[in-house]
Design brief:
The complex is a heterodimer of chains A (about 100) and B (about 500). With about 100 residues, chain A is mainly alpha-helical. Chain A has a domain at about 5-40: Orthogonal Bundle (Histone, subunit A). Chain A contains three helices and two strands. Chain A has a two-stranded antiparallel sheet with strand order 1-2. Chain B is α/β, with parallel strands linked by helices and about 500 residues long. Chain B has a domain at about 10-265 and about 470-485: Amidase signature (AS) domain (Amidase signature (AS) enzymes). Chain B contains 15 helices and eleven strands. Chain B has helices spanning about 10-20, 25-35, 50-65, 105-115, 160-170, 185-190, 225-235, 280-295, 310-325, 345-355, 360-370, 375-400, 425-430, 435-440, 470-485; strands at about 45, 75-80, 115-120, 175-180, 195, 215-220, 265-270, 300, 405-410, 445-450, 455-465. An eight-stranded mixed beta sheet of chain B has the order 4-6-5-10-11-9-7-8, sandwiched between helices. A three-stranded mixed beta sheet of chain B has the order 1-3-2, with helices on both faces. In chain B, helix 9 (about 310-325) packs across helix 12. Classes of the chains: A mainly alpha (about 100), B alpha/beta (about 500). The interface between A and B is large, with 51 and 71 residues.
């Protein structure tokens, strides 16, 4: 299957990466090249194979349902590009 | 007096313990060396104060007659993928420029608890995506090695290329690396040093900037096998903060090192003799087969029939996981924000990510988003995970016939910067020998074996069963003793 510039723009939108028309033109053949290469996986018969979920057998642990940490508001906000009054701030989302 | 920067981890540790030199003398010697090696661009941030503080603690402990910690007196380099409290951590990406963690990664904390000091944060491929260190937002790392009679800049390998370049140039005796598809082993091979990726789950991933979580694993890079064992012992161990961390004691890998391979069976996978493999690499591999026989091992041929599918499976799984992991860089919580005039929230996300991520990172996020999108998920992602099961099964079957596998680490010696950057697939093929064991979560190590005709280092890879780091280290030691690799790059920087 082949990826056109419209598909590139759609995928970039899903990934929340702004791209120009020129970027999309450049990326389409690049992505096609990579996707064409990985499509060789289709020739492997996997009809009786389960997809891998854990590479090394391990059991998920449960812990007691108690508060372990918290109250670190200032530390959480310390690297925010913009924070005010103890909150992250973003452009207005509700009109 | 000996140049302390020539010494490895074991020699520095033992020398400080014996009082042959002080930890402060060691730290000062490396700090000077780092400050004079800007041309290599191996460090993003230098932290002499951290190394000096750890040295002071070691020296005062010794003066007071207290027991010294396992890595007391040893300053190391930290790949910039590990969150370090109060020290900028960027994953070599512009999107995290200025990010100063308020917490410490588990692996780096373990190293500080063991007495190590930090010389600085090491450059790398952006978000560990790359095999040549050409994707860093802070510029290429230059290998200290050059081809005979040439001044052209070579790659130190990637993604842990700052680590490999710094160790090969003796700017630090050891460093952390991370390995998702070969990012410890390939740079180690390219620069004539040793590097081990342990079994998936041995080292905590907590505080390591995530790339592909089912593959990412921290490991040790150093001059030689013993030093890797020492460093890895300090890094490994259970961590409740990582759900995939293995709840197992850390073995005494260094104390148990044994270069005799008597009674061991070493498998040579036929499929790794790929088309177009350079003569000198095939020849070196054959020599290594003789070395392990000399060390007492029996060599058997094994088959890993799905080897050729490992790279395409990896280039579905790793980008898929990356597209999910890197969704967190949104310009809200940390890192940079790009807010065009009048932009709404969605436009801010898109502008921030367009400005912050490098081209290779964007390419992988787009591939990952595509293969996970509705209608394509089963054809790509589920199929890749099934193929991954088959690759892991190949190894299981091989390990019924042998204890360890011996292969080259990379299909070439270091290439020139710029030589492969125009063709992503040519670059991806560099990891052909390292990706399969990553997909299977196995411990694997690269050890220097010799030089190619151009005078560049070549590495051999030993792959072990899950949790058999000891077997991997022992076989690597047997090779190291027979290779007698002492070549060093001329100090042009």
């Amino acid at each position: 299957m082949s990826v056109d510039t419209n598909t590139v723009k759609k995928v970039a939108n899903l990934a929340r990466i702004a791209i120009s028309d020129a970027d999309a033109e450049k990326l389409a053949p690049e992505l096609n090249n990579i996707l064409g290469w990985i499509e060789q996986l289709g020739e492997v018969d996997t009809s009786s194979v389960e997809p891998m979920t854990a590479v090394i057998p391990n059991t998920l642990r449960l812990r007691d349902d108690v508060v372990t940490e918290g109250g670190a508001r200032d530390a959480v906000l310390a690297n925010a590009p913009q924070g005010e009054h103890g909150f992250f701030t973003v452009p207005k989302v509700v009109e | 007096m000996t140049d302390l920067t020539e010494l490895g981890i074991a020699a520095l540790r033992d020398g400080v313990r014996a009082g042959s030199f002080s930890a402060r003398e060691v730290a000062d010697a490396f700090i000077v060396k780092v400050s004079k090696a800007k041309a290599l661009n191996a460090f993003i941030v230098e932290t002499p104060e951290h190394a000096i503080a750890a040295a002071r603690e070691a020296d005062s402990a010794r003066a007071a007659g207290r027991a010294l910690k396992p890595l007391a007196g040893v300053p190391i380099g930290m790949k910039d993928l590990f969150a370090t409290k109060g020290v900028q951590t960027t994953a070599a990406s512009h999107i995290l420029e200025g990010f100063t963690p308020v917490y410490e990664s588990t692996v780096s904390q373990k190293l500080w608890d063991a007495g190590a000091g930090m010389l600085g944060k090491l450059n790398m491929d952006q978000f560990a995506m790359g095999s040549s260190n050409e994707t860093s937002a802070f510029g290429n790392v230059i290998s200290p090695w050059r081809r005979k009679g040439s001044n052209s800049a070579l790659t130190p390998g990637g993604s842990s290329g700052g680590s490999s370049a710094a160790i090969a140039a003796r700017l630090c005796p050891g460093a952390t690396g991370t390995d998702t598809g070969g990012s410890i082993r390939q740079p180690a091979a390219f620069t004539g040093i040793s590097g081990i990726k342990p079994t998936y789950g041995r080292c905590s991933r907590w505080g390591i900037v995530a790339f592909a979580s089912s593959l990412d694993q921290a490991g040790a890079m150093a001059h030689d096998v013993r030093d890797c064992a020492i460093l890895l012992e300090a890094m490994a161990g259970f961590d409740a903060k990582d759900a995939t961390s293995l709840k197992l004691e850390v073995p005494n890998w260094e104390a148990s090192l044994n270069a005799s391979l008597a009674g061991k069976k070493i498998g040579v996978p036929a499929e790794y003799l790929v088309d177009g493999i350079p003569y000198e690499i095939a020849a070196m591999w054959q020599t290594a087969i003789d070395w392990v026989k000399d060390a007492g091992a029996e060599v058997v041929e094994v088959s890993l029939p799905h080897t050729k599918y490992a790279l395409p499976a990896y280039y579905i799984i790793a980008p898929a996981e990356a597209s999910s992991n890197l969704a967190r860089y949104d310009g809200v919580r940390y890192g940079i924000r790009e807010l065009p005039e009048g932009a709404n929230l969605q436009e801010m996300y898109a502008a921030t990510r367009a400005a912050g991520f490098g081209d290779e990172v964007k390419r992988r996020i787009l591939i990952g988003t595509y293969v996970l999108s509705a209608g394509f998920y089963d054809a790509y992602y589920t199929q890749a995970q099934k193929v991954r099961t088959l690759i892991a099964r190949d190894f299981e079957l091989a390990f019924q016939k042998c204890d360890l596998l011996l292969t080259p680490t990379a299909p070439s010696a270091a290439f020139a910067l710029g030589e492969k950057s125009a063709d992503p697939i040519a670059m991806y093929l560099n990891d052909v020998f390292t990706v399969p064991s990553s997909l299977a979560g196995l411990p694997a190590m690269s050890v220097p074996a010799g030089l190619d005709p151009a005078g560049l280092p070549l590495g051999l890879q030993v792959i072990g069963r899950p949790l058999d780091e000891q077997g991997v280290l022992d076989a690597a030691l047997a090779i190291e003793q027979r290779a007698g690799f002492t070549s060093r790059p001329d100090a042009w920087w």
